[in-house]
Amino acid sequence: MTDNYISAIDIGSHKIKVIVAEVEEENKEKIIGFSETPSTAIRKGEVMEIEKLRQDIEKAVEAVEMQTGLTIDNVYVGITGASIRSKNANHHIPITKKDKIIRKDDIELVLDGIKALNTEVGQRILHIIPWEYSVDEQKDIKEPPIGIMGLRLEIKAHLILAQIISIDNILRAVNKSGLIINDFVLSPYAASLASLTNEDKELGCCYIDIGSDLINILTFINGSLWKTDCMSFGSQIITNDIAYTLRISIADAEKLKVNYGFAAPEFIEEDEILKYSLLGDEKTIKSISKKYLAEIIEERLKEILMHIFEKVNETQSKLLPGGLIFGGGGSKIKGLQEFAKKIFAINDNNIYNIRINYFNDEYLLNKHQLGLEWAAAIGLIKYAFNNEKKGTKLDFSDEKNFLKNILKTLKSFIKDNFNI
């Protein structure tokens, strides 16, 4: 694939999605191909069978190659998982140059220090996302202070860490598919890039990504990612409840939820009788009202929203005037927005502004109608195109360079603190 195209794979527990965008002469990107296939080898973000994952990836990639006439050889890969961890950290260095002017290498040295001092055993840093730069007593600087004079540079950043084993398993499957990985990206973070405006993040908001078996909550304050949370359940438990109650297959339960599901009976204007067949007995046809289906969904959805509320409430609501933005395939349940407002209002006098995500980059979408479940894949294209200038990615293909940066940082730390 030439430099004029960007390709990405979003590896989820429900679907494997592949997307390709063309970078045009006016330096804009637009989607030209996409495909998805059922994910048969991932559970809660972890690889269960490498060979099955390879097959799933190859199937989705081949479909996009047929659409576009391109050969995909390198990709950005979106991952998630219950083992993902995050933390906030900071590091500072003295500016030792004679002219005291801060340059790019000073920024990199501080970021290398954050890496060196916060990389835990068995983990790799996926993202270091600075949220504040300080030069001497001047704080709350949002952009790298390159060119500013000072004696001391400090960076506060949000770190997202993943298990090395989890990354390596995905790496093996992707490589077995004949693909080269440009970078790993946290899928919910990528989804936020496609879903939130700069104003949302500046005001302060939570992006709530409801996936099949994971729910990720990303909290943005003053324009920057400040907190990342993951809950090890998702919309699949609603599907399971429908299957168990009606004694039907998981596949049929998912179809009922997606095609006819409502957050609660009160949002159904006109009831309707739905037909379905029992698991293992296709000849026996049963019926259910749309309102009864909504009652099944309501009970579990209320429980899910209460867990989300507890996690969101750890951040003071006054810091989130931008409210809560729901995304991911699990947010497609009709009536979710009003139901969430109702549940949250019962438990908190401060009613959050709540909305369901929408994509507003019409040029990028290129007239393609992509649902909320495509947010992470679209965000991967944005991440690749922008090269994520606010964050710093770890080069997974160059361990020697990473170790060299750690030694450089430690050497600088010893020199600055012990006068050696």
How would you characterize this protein structure?
The chain has 420 residues and is an alpha+beta fold. It has helices spanning 50-68, 104-118, 164-176, 187-195, 198-203, 236-246, 250-260, 290-312, 336-347, 362-365, 375-386, 399-418; strands at residues 5-11, 15-23, 29-38, 42-43, 46-47, 74-79, 85-94, 123-135, 138-141, 152-163, 180-186, 205-210, 215-221, 224-231, 273-278, 281-289, 323-327, 354-356, 392-393. A five-stranded mixed β-sheet has the order 3-2-1-6-11, sandwiched between helices. Strands 7, 8, 9, 10 and 19 form a five-stranded antiparallel β-sheet that branches. A five-stranded mixed β-sheet has the order 14-13-12-17-18, sandwiched between helices. Helix 1 (50-68) crosses helix 3 and helix 6 (236-246) crosses helix 7 (250-260). It starts with a strand and ends with a helix.
What's the arrangement of secondary structure elements?
Layout: E1 5-11, E2 15-23, E3 29-38, E4 42-43, E5 46-47, H1 50-68, E6 74-79, E7 85-94, H2 104-118, E8 123-135, E9 138-141, E10 152-163, H3 164-176, E11 180-186, H4 187-195, H5 198-203, E12 205-210, E13 215-221, E14 224-231, H6 236-246, H7 250-260, E15 273-278, E16 281-289, H8 290-312, E17 323-327, H9 336-347, E18 354-356, H10 362-365, H11 375-386, E19 392-393, H12 399-418
Parallel strand pairs: 1-6, 6-11, 12-17, 17-18
Antiparallel strand pairs: 1-2, 2-3, 4-5, 7-10, 8-9, 8-10, 8-19, 12-13, 13-14, 15-16
Helix pairs in contact: 1-3, 2-12, 4-11, 6-7, 6-8, 8-9
